[in-house]
Every structure is written in C-alpha cells, then in structure tokens.
Amino acid sequence: MKRIVIILAALAAAFSCTNEKRQPALLDPAAFADTLEGKPVALYTLKNADLVLQVTNYGARVASIWTPDRKGNYDNVVVGRASLEGYVHPAGERFLGACVGPVANRIGNAEFAIGDMVFKTPANEAGITTLHGGYKGLDNVVWDVKSVDESSIVLTYLHEDGQEGFPGNLSIEMRYELTPSDEFRITYSAVTDSPTPVNITNHPFFNLSGEGSGSIEDCVMTINASSYIPIDAHSIPLGGTASVEGTPFDFREPHAIGERLGEDNEQLRNARGYDHNWCLDRKGEGMEQACTVYDPASGRFLEVLTDQIGLQFYSGNFFDGNDVGSNGKPLIFRSSFALETQYFPDSPNHPEYPSILLNPGETYTHECIYRFSTRK
User: Fold this and answer.
1) For this structure, is 285 an active site residue?
2) CA 20 to 30 Å from 195, out of 169, 266, 310, 348?
C-alpha cells in the first residue's frame, strides 16, 4: 500500500511539472540604472490583469510586454534590448519600443515651411529625409518621470526651441497605462509657445509568438482602411492617396501578412515590403478600431484602437539577423512588425493632407490602445 502511495505521489509531481505555465522572465532593472544628460535613468515595471510591461525613461521605450498565449504561457511579445547600453548605442534598429517625434515618420528633403519661413531638419535617413525627429528625437532623450504607480507611468519632456531644427518650446506629457481589460493604453498631450508641426507616435515592434520567434508572415491582419499613401523609393509620399482595391494593401478582410508580399508591385518594391500609411475609415472623432492581428501559432490576438486618422504598418523589412533582441535571439528578416497610429507622413509638405501644425493656445492630443486577448 505504501509503495502505491509513493508511486501516485511521484506521478502527481511529474504531472504538475509538465503542466507548469511559463511565467515572465523580466529584464534586470540594474542593467538600466544610470545617469544620462544629468538625469537618472531607470527601468519601471507595470502590472495589471494579465499584462506585465517594462519601460525605461530613456526614449520612453517599451522594453518588454509579457502576455499569455492560448495555453496560459507567457512570452515577451515586443522586441527590445537587455540593457540601457543596447538602446544608447544600438547595434542595429534604433527605434525599438520608443516614443518618436516630434514629427514621426518622414519629412521630405529634410525641410518644411511655416508661412514664409523655411525650417531645415537633419537628413538622418539616407542623407535625404528626416526620420522620426532627426538624430536627437524623442527616442534619444531622457524623459522626466512625473508619477508612477503599479499600473501606470507619466513621463514629460520639453523639446526645446531649435532642437533638431524644429521651432517652439514643445512641452509633452505622455501616460502609459495597463488597464483591467488587458490593454496597453498610451495618451499624449503637448503645448507650444510658437507654431510647430507635431505628430508623435510609439514604435513597439511586435512578434506575437514571442521575441525572436521567427517570421510574422503567417499572422493574419485586418486594417480598417479603403486607401493608403503611395511612396517613392525614399519612402516620401507621392501626394494624395490611392485606393487599396485590388492591391496587396487591401486588408479590409483578413489576410496573412506574407500572403501577397511576393506580388509584382512597385509600392512593395519601394519599401521592400510594407512600410506605408493607411488612411483609416473613421466614423467620428473618438476611439475606433484601426487594425487587428491574429497569430495562429500562439493564439494571441492584438487590436489597435486610436483617435488618429492614419496607421503606419511596417513589416520588419530591414532586419537581417545581425542584431539580437533582449533574449539574445537574432532579429531576422520580417520577424516583427510595427503599428504606429499617427497623422499622415510628410504632412507639412503636402497641403492636401490634414495639417499637423500646433499653434500657441492649442493642445495636441493623441490616444492609442494595444489590446491583447487570445483565440483558439
């Protein structure tokens, strides 16, 4: 009898081990503790519901988001670095998990005009365009931590008049919050003392199977947009918009990301895949669903909601395996994607697009939600 009890106990222990769920393996805060530009830098951990998020105030970067798959196993679903040094001196992609701006996306010919005044900005992309605010954009500065609690953090930054050529002292406040509904909610506000263009966004790179888990081409996507903005070979808008009808850019019905990437299409060639702004089919001014992504392998389902008019979808076309993420795995071609809610790219140079000019006495606002769930 005693022998039977021992055997049953051993089987129960073995069964328990085989059914143990994979838990978050959080980044070490000590690897992010430093002082830059005379300001303290740290790693903060937010928790709520089924989500765990880690953020550093260097570039307001999302370093990890841990969420369960359909079996309850946790993975980090964004690409990041294991230490602050990896962000300050990146071996490859600069914008991992960062807040970008003050004008996200591209500014053609690295200049724009406000009235009769022409402003020059750094040509930090191929010596031709200004990308994501220049060399010292919002991703490459230390943000001040205004407040932090278990599920939220409020960060502020003063983008000073003349920084990277942009006029006006732009005072920015941004809140990251994890809600009880398994949402990562981002809210922005900004004011200025002089007219200046503003188009701030966030740049997490997602792999819903987990960081470094291979291609994202099998993920099934929808984008609520009937038109998009065609670009030239330097990713600058050609002007106006184009219908998605009959093109690889039509995601009004679900399609795998990689399903049409091999088609003979000039726009796909220009960006080596998808790196375009979709013009969202909005019904009003509040929060609306812009996009969904389903990962069949893990069962994770991502919804993107926003009050903005555009969504930039980037399919990770320039990762080449020579860089690694926070877990040491190589970041291979199309192994992550970015979904950036925003106004339209190069808007200051395209009067046909809605203006992004912020004037004194006005307040720039922007809200984005990344909502996580699972499906069978």
Assistant:
1) no
2) 310
